Amino acid sequence: MNNIFCEINDYILENEVAYAIFDKFPVNEGHMLFIPKRHVKDFFDLTRNERESIFELVDEGKKLLDEKYSPDGYNVGVNCGEVSGQTVMHVHVHLIPRYTGDTSCPKGGVRGVIPDKMKY
Ligand code: AMP
């Protein structure tokens, strides 16, 4: 199962099981992706060790972004399946730094996956 991530080798962070890269089309400056080395499409098919290894890197990534960009908050998210918006069929966790004023009304955050339901 080759995909776009297989062509990338300039990892920002890495452990035995997973790695992190900067997103090529970032939602905000510092947008990172955390990817298992094993080719798995769906987050729910990851082993416990893969999940732990990925989230260890998410913690390291957050530290790195705090130091480099001092964001005001974060969104962490995974798209699971085409219907949810997944476009690269190799599971990845998005870490999106948020900056005050990056959108006029952030209320609802990840609820914005369905824009009409973002506010409640
Ligand atoms: P998703 O829609 O959850 O599958 O997210 C795929 C992500 O991969 C998007 O945020 C894209 O901007 C990002 N992306 C696509 N191609 C590349 C690439 N060559 N290098 C890094 N990130 C990429």
Automatic annotation (TrEMBL):
SUPFAM superfamilies: HIT-like. Its EC number is 2.1.1.-. It comes from the Bacteria. A motif (Histidine triad motif) lies at residues 90-94. The keyword Methyltransferase applies. PANTHER family: AP-4-A PHOSPHORYLASE, HIT FAMILY HYDROLASE. This is HIT family protein.
